[in-house]
Recover the amino acids of this structure.
């Protein structure tokens, strides 16, 4: 069963939250972070993208960069831009996108739950990316950014959250760039804190929705600290890491689409004919065409959109992986026809998150940068949970969650 705890969050005072908060470190590059930070010395990018504190071109893995993160984290606290709460709390974090609001609970997730599989993952992680985030957690001695979990729907927690949502939030702002609304409430009532802890203790599993590398890094640093502490008791703050947990049914997963540079030596006619072996292919004209259901894809080629419906027998609805459209398209189109074997390393393919819309796929093909585009029907949260429960791993580039968590609203110190 899942173990969580409240913690003493480190947060910006209300009047500075919009100057401190930022996008997550991994959704923008160094120069974008430099531009967004501008002359704002309170921007969290100085801590989570600390290479911007040096001359352009400085490697984000330079030892000086990690040290700069520590120095800025300390400076933010000394100047009062980040202040630690006096008592342990849970926090409620709401995001509103396109009129839909999802509510998350910000908690201390248990390191041992990650290590033993109570916290379940559905993606592979790369050791180099883990090590980068581990260095950042180690030097800052804090989880500067949260990870993104899902939990099975729970009526008790839903009612508690809605009770707080009816009150005035601590933070309430529209973020630049994404234009989405972000709100935060502090759960300080001892009875409510106890109720949240008790409800999570009934849950057999929590699910990583987004942030697999941050989850691994946070848990592994916690485990390191336990191993290196001869007086370890199991109650130390480093036994927990910061997560925002959302009810599974509230989450929005967008399509994660593909653009490819060439047809592997085939003409357009030969490619369409080859697709016909495994798909029902129908031209839908020049207007953008969205996949309407599971196992239907949209292909954009030579100024026209085509629907591709996978034929019976090309997939296995009883297999949590085999039922996925990302698996079908990877096997039968990208690998079998186009010779793209490794989605992570092949430079002939790129990926476009669904928030950009299918117009972005059309633009990149029409520009000549790419030869064709493939749009997929979105994965569901239930599919992700089924895969995690089965112990299997999803194919790469399968999920795109929106909205992204804003960073800088709460930080979790490992030594409290």
């Amino acid at each position: 069963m899942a173990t969580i705890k409240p913690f003493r969050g480190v947060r910006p005072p209300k009047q500075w939250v919009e100057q401190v908060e930022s996008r997550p470190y991994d959704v923008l590059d160094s120069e974008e972070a430099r531009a967004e930070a501008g002359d704002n010395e309170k921007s969290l990018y100085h801590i989570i993208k600390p290479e911007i504190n040096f001359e352009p071109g400085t490697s984000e893995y330079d030892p000086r960069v990690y040290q700069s993160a520590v120095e800025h984290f300390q400076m933010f606290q000394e100047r009062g831009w980040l202040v630690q709460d006096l008592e342990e709390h849970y926090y409620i974090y709401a995001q509103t996108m396109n009129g839909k609001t999802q509510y998350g609970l910000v908690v201390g997730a248990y390191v041992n739950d990650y290590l033993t599989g109570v916290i379940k993952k559905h993606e592979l992680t790369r050791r180099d990316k883990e090590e980068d985030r581990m260095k950042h957690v180690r030097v800052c001695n804090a989880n500067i950014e949260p990870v993104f979990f899902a939990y099975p729907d729970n009526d008790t927690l839903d009612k508690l959250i809605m009770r707080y949502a009816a009150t005035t939030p601590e933070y309430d702002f529209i973020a630049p760039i994404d234009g989405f609304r972000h709100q935060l409430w502090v759960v300080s009532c001892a009875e409510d804190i106890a109720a949240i802890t008790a409800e999570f203790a009934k849950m057999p599993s929590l699910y990583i929705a987004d942030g697999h590398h941050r989850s691994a890094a946070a848990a592994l640093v916690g485990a390191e600290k336990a191993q290196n502490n001869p007086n370890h008791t199991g109650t130390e703050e480093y036994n927990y890491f910061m997560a925002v947990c959302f009810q599974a049914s509230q989450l929005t997963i967008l399509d994660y689409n593909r653009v490819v540079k060439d047809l592997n030596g085939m003409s357009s006619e030969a490619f369409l004919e080859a697709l016909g072996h495994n798909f029902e292919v129908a031209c839908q004209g020049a207007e953008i065409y969205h996949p309407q259901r599971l196992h239907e894809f949209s292909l954009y080629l030579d100024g026209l959109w085509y629907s591709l419906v996978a034929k019976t027998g090309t997939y296995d609805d009883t297999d949590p992986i085999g039922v996925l459209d990302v698996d079908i398209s990877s096997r039968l189109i990208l690998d079998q026809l186009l010779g793209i074997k490794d989605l992570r390393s092949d430079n002939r393919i790129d990926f476009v998150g669904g928030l950009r819309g299918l117009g972005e796929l059309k633009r990149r093909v029409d520009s000549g940068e790419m030869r064709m585009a493939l749009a997929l029907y979105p994965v569901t949260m239930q599919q992700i949970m089924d895969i995690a429960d089965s112990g299997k791993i999803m194919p790469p580039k399968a999920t795109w969650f929106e909205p992204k968590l804003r960073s800088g609203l709460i930080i979790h110190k490992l030594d409290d």
The mean pLDDT is 93. The chain is about 30% helix and 25% strand. The radius of gyration is 23 Å.
